[in-house]
Amino acid sequence: MKNKILTTIFLIPIIFIFLGCPGSKRDELEFYRSQVNSLRNVISNFVVEYNQLKYESYLQNKPFLISDLYKRYKTTFSQKDIDLINNLLKLEQRPERIDRLERLKVFIYEKIVEKSTSQLYDQIENLKSNISFATRKGNFKLENLNEYLSNEPNNRIRRNVYNSNLRELENLQKLQIKLFEERKKIILDSLHFGSYLQFASMIRQENLDEFYSIVNDFVSSTNDFYFQQLYELLRTLRYSQDNLVAPDINYFTKDQRFEKYFKADGLKNILLSTFHNLGFKIDSLQNLQIQFEQLDKTKRKDIIPNRTAGFTIRIPEQSYLNIHLTNGCESYSKAFGECGKLLPEVFTTEEFFEIRYFGGDLIPLTFKNLFANVFDDEKYLAGNIFNSSKLISGYLKQRSFKKLFNVRKLCADFIVEYLMIDSSQTNLDSLAQIYSSILGYNLTSGDKARLFSSLNDYFLEAEQLNAIFIEAMMKTRIREKFGDEWFKNGGLKDYLMNYFTKGRKWTKDKFLVEIGYYNLDPRFFFNEVISLKEKSKNLRLR
């Protein structure tokens, strides 16, 4: 008996050493949770200030500058914050808690890099805003130049304007490369990632090596159709491909025969009635303020940059949609798209901060595309825009080419960024040639000077392309459930609300499963493009 007692006494401390002290572990868990909660509150305030600053910059038509904001948060966004979250991750066991912590950690990683390079970022934004192109329609900023080019009928003038200001563009490019190099150094040396690509894959929640293969396959599979469309367009316009340059595409895909039917006076009514028909009273929501900016009718023939944009300050309490009432299809598409993008933030019922704000923009961008692309639909166009099948036919043919051009342009952006990411010394001429081979135009000095414009967004194109491809997959399901005139089927509201209420909760894979698929398939988008061309042909033959 005595031996049993001694054995028990001896084993008790050994058991505690082996298992750990439950009370101690619990205290440690609660301590780290408390510390992370405090950090979360600080970051929540930062996010609101960041969003507010972006909105105010838009309202004042000034560059979005961030360095002063980061100075107010000088003790936030550091390796210490990452270590704190990692300590809590070692103790947490519930998957939903782990998911929220991982989202928070990714955000902090991104902001550590942004904070460290914020002054250089501001320098770039200031330079961008100061680059101005002189045209016979007035001066245009770099970000608005395409709107001028799409309205300039003289190809010689288009080319000259596009290739002007090369010194400023080259200086901007040098700064963009410098920003990339500084961020890469921080990622590798301070944050100890194995590569820039690994860090970017974490930010985008995407295996970028695999996505590179998907993008290349898409480009290859659409080559024949794209170049056939391009040759048809040039033949119709009696324009030689030998003379084709990048700014020409902007002009050729904005045919004034169709643009004039998208009238500024009709945009507000068509937008509201479309969403009302689906059951969304967007102009009556307390947490979404819509501002329609009416232009002076005497200025409507001027080329005025469309500044329609949506902003969210607090999710879901405070969102703004500013709609610039101008003529043209892009004006309509932009208004519908920006509204669709805000809906997952306006209607989310998720209670946790990380689920509301973090996890990428894939889901908001998907719904941006869904509503912007309502103008692909022949019946919608007949009921709201055009008064003849001939006009719809011509418009759908143009739309088919433009949609494929835009996506192949995103593919080219992604490929160029992917190929140069390990060495900023990659030959610029070779990289610029990628655009020529994918898009079919001849290179000019302005093309090389515009390389790397999206370099510092950690492959934003991957998220944009995913949203485009998934929207086409979702629309297939929507048509199966709600018919070809889904855009006026009130039953669609409940279907969409199932997604809107989740906000950013779902990953890409989970989002696909919820729609009814297991893998991303870009062929759905390509089929949409082909379908537009076929509908155009059928309407023409009626």
What is the element layout, followed by pairings?
Layout: H1 2-19, H2 22-59, H3 67-71, H4 79-89, H5 95-116, H6 118-130, E1 132-135, E2 138-141, H7 145-149, H8 155-162, H9 166-190, H10 196-204, H11 208-237, H12 246-252, H13 256-259, H14 264-277, E3 288-294, E4 309-314, E5 318-325, H15 329-346, H16 353-357, H17 362-372, H18 378-384, H19 389-420, H20 428-439, H21 445-449, H22 460-482, H23 492-500, H24 508-515, H25 523-541
Parallel strand pairs: 3-5
Antiparallel strand pairs: 1-2, 4-5
List the main descriptive attributes of the protein structure presented here.
single chain, 542 residues, mainly alpha, three-stranded mixed β-sheet, two-stranded antiparallel sheet, 25 helices, 5 strands, 66% helix, globular
Q: Tell the overall outline.
A: globular
The biggest sheet, with number of strands, parallel, antiparallel or mixed sense and barrel status, is:
3 strands, mixed
Percentage of helical residues? 55-70%
- Element-level helix/strand string: HHHHHHEEHHHHHHHHEEEHHHHHHHHHHH
The helix tally amounts to: 25
Ranges with pLDDT <50 over ≥5 residues?
A: 14-21
Strand content: 5-15%
Mean of pLDDT? 93
- Judged by helices, strands and strand pairing, the structural class is mainly alpha
Strand order of the largest sheet: 3-5-4
Rg of Cα set:
26 Å
Got a strand count?
5
N- to C-terminal distance: 103 Å
